[in-house]
Amino acid sequence: MNENADRIYAEIYDSANSAFRADIPFYVEEAQRPGGSVLELRCRTGLVAAAIARSGVDVVGIDSSAPMLEAARRKMGQLDETSGSLDFVEAGLTDFSRVLDGKFNLAICPDSGFLSLLTVEDQTLLLRNVIRHLAPGGRFIFDIEAPDLDLLAQDADVAYQVRDVTDPDMGARFVFWEQSGYDHFDQIAEVRTIVEELDGEGVVCRRIYRDSKVRYANRWEVYHLLKLSGFEVLNLFGSFDRAPFASDSAVMTWVAGARS
């Protein structure tokens, strides 16, 4: 994605995701359990990181996108004296160890950020870097979308409506569409997200195209990646209310700790 497209998407990111972040209360609760500090990987505009900081926990967020981090740093000025510290660092998921010191009680990677790594080698590198930055007894929690067989069979030439969103604070209205093609051999999805912003009359006033790639992963594949990278799987949830993972779960939320 070019920087201008990234900047435009960063501008609307919070509004466009305002009604679909059930993960935020989950990660805030998990951050408060061990105490200590939190590392958020691929923090985007800092929605999760800022919520955790407001709960009184110290947070460092990393992301490779300068426009996303610019939006994230604006949230630092919204904290009060009861908040934890909040800092952001520009780095990628596979190389953050070169710019980041210290250890954390909890590392998180929300919103399917793990799937943005397109090879097993990069996924393994991320996991091993996370272990280096976990304090004794620390945990790594991340969520990814569970593979949907219906989506994997969709026509790559057709855009499908995903959802309508109205920002409860700003009133901005958006319609999301996705058009995806799949390489089932390498498990790569090429996704075009189309965001239509509507005016008060319901007329499209702006249309934004965002192309990205993700590597979808299956349950046991992720399980063995964690084990091979030095983790023990502590739990696998199928929702952010901590229901057990089941065959019809739309999300896999992994909780892992470094193997002693």
Percent strand equals 25-35%
Using the 3D structure, state the CATH architecture of the largest domain. Answer: 3-Layer(aba) Sandwich
**Total helix count?**
7
User: In percent, how helical is the residue content?
Assistant: 25-40%
What are the segments in which pLDDT stays under 50 over at least 5 consecutive residues?
none
What CATH first level of the largest domain would be assigned?
Alpha Beta
Overall average pLDDT: 92
Radius of gyration: 18 Å
CATH topology of the largest domain: Rossmann fold
Q: So what's the overall shape?
A: globular
Q: Can you give a write-up of this model?
A:
- The chain is α/β, with parallel strands linked by helices and 260 residues long.
- It folds into two domains: 3-147 and 216-258, Vaccinia Virus protein VP39 (Rossmann fold, 3-Layer(aba) Sandwich); 159-214, N-terminal domain of TfIIb (Single Sheet).
- The protein is 26% helix and 35% strand.
- The protein contains seven helices and eleven strands.
- The chain has helices at 3-16, 23-32, 47-54, 66-74, 120-132, 149-152, 219-228; strands at residues 37-41, 58-63, 86-90, 104-109, 134-145, 160-166, 173-183, 188-198, 204-215, 231-237, 251-258.
- It has a seven-stranded mixed β-sheet with strand order 3-2-1-4-5-11-10, sandwiched between helices. The protein has a four-stranded antiparallel β-sheet with strand order 6-7-8-9, covered by helices on one side.
- Strand 1 (37-41), helix 3 and strand 2 (58-63) form a beta-alpha-beta unit.
- Helix 1 packs parallel to helix 4 (66-74).
- The longest helix is centred in the N-terminal third of the chain and has 14 residues, at 3-16.
- The chain starts with a helix and ends with a strand.
- The model has no long low-confidence stretch (mean pLDDT 92).
